[in-house]
Amino acid sequence: MKGNTGTTRRIKAGVAAGITAITLAFGGVSSAHADTALLNVSYDVTRELYKDINASFIAAYKQKSGETLSVRQSHGASSAQALSVLQGLQADVVTMNQPNDIDLLADKGHLVPANWRARLPDGSAPYTTTMVFLVRKGNPKHIKDWDDLAKPGIQAVIANPKTSGNGRYTYLAAWGYRKQHGGTDAQAQDFVKAIFRNVPVLDTGGRGATTTFTQRGIGDVLVTFENEVSLIDTGVGAGSYEAVYPSVSLLAAPPVAIVDKVVDKRGTRKEAQAYLDYLWSPAAQEIIAQHHLRPRDKNVLAKHAAEFKPIKTFTVEDMFGSWQKAQDTHFSDGGTFDQIIVDRK
After folding, report:
1. What is the pTM of this model?
2. What is the DSSP string of 212-262?
3. CATH superfamily of this structure's domain 4-126+254-280
4. Which is nearest to 220 in space by CA: 142, 130, 167?
5. Strand partners, 249
6. What is the reported pLDDT for 27?
7. Could you read off the pLDDT of 89-125 as tens digits, one per residue?
8. 3-class DSSP state for residue 169?
9. Helix (H, G, I), strand (E, B) or coil at 43
10. Residues 118, 123, 124, 127: what is their CA dihedral angle, to the nearest 10 degrees?
11. I need a surface site. Which of 35, 45, 281, 327 has the fewest CB within 10 A?
12. Class at the top of the CATH hierarchy for domain 130-251+311-341
């Protein structure tokens, strides 16, 4: 991957947070009666989702096999989490928010095969989501679409695209929006530069960006995954914020994979495969929908159709050719994001 060495140096700080997260996760889970413990290394806005999925899976697996499992979690910025696994964190499975983080494990560590996408349905992505806006009650800055994020006087809270898939999706969504409205690549770069000039804090992950917006009170708009916006809008912050759907956004299909070298070393392949297969079960798809993520199961999606507002989306492949091309052009050292960020003030 072009520029990976420099990028690795940039996100090593995030690895410490990932290690801390897994230390806390291990400390908070009792496995005294467990025959096998799996470790799921995931991105930072899926804590609540996998807490519920794990409980459901453990019960279903016990009923089916008679075996007792435990599932431990590690959460952090997606790219930093991938680097933690590359550097030795013993993940049985990874559940990341964009394919490049799993490709890293295949290309640099040979921890998963290059064809990992083909091993599970739907390109190994059990649900989809997209990037939307969260604004303060009443939408005082009248933010409606991506153009508004580039206006002077707007503070947009966006996670750092160097360390966060959340930030990467946002960057690419804004770039694609400008291109879809007749812009050249140069105009798209100027447009995204104007948006990031309005970003007061570059948090390393999506949950950090949420904290900056909701708890620290910084910013006029948070750009993040639809499920994170829905969680805030219907949770403890209900009534203080409003969700805004832009006219078009980027489709996110967060992928999952078994980490072959780890499961073969630990002897946990059967359990890890069962865990990932379970994500496509009706029970897990229902949990996915309840956590405001768009399920792949058509029946479950139809049941929750009223919650998921229609939105026009495009994919990374549609706009940029592939994730690898997008990574090389925009996020490798010296890429367009580096050019944008160096003089954003």
Report:
1. 0.84
2. HHHTS---SEEEEEHHHHHHHHHTTTTTTEEEE--SEEEEE---EEE-HHH
3. Periplasmic binding protein-like II (3.40.190.10)
4. 142
5. 313
6. 36
7. 999 999 999 999 999 999 999 999 999 999 999 999 9
8. helix
9. strand
10. -170
11. 35
12. alpha beta
The Cα 21–Cα 4 span in angstroms is 24
Please check whether residue 39 is in contact with residue 74, taking contact to mean a CB–CB distance below 8 angstroms: yes
In the chain, % helix, strand, coil (3-state, to 5) comes to 50, 15, 35
CA atoms within 13 A on the CB side of 193: 16
pLDDT, tens digit, 9 for 90 and up, residues 67-79: 999 999 999 988 8
Residue with token string 């930030």 = 167
Amino acid residing at 265? K
Spatial separation of the C-alpha atoms in residues 15 and 100, rounded to whole Å: 17
Kindly tell me the burial class for residue 157, based on how many C-beta atoms sit within 10 Å of its own C-beta (0-12, 13-18, 19 or more).
Answer: buried
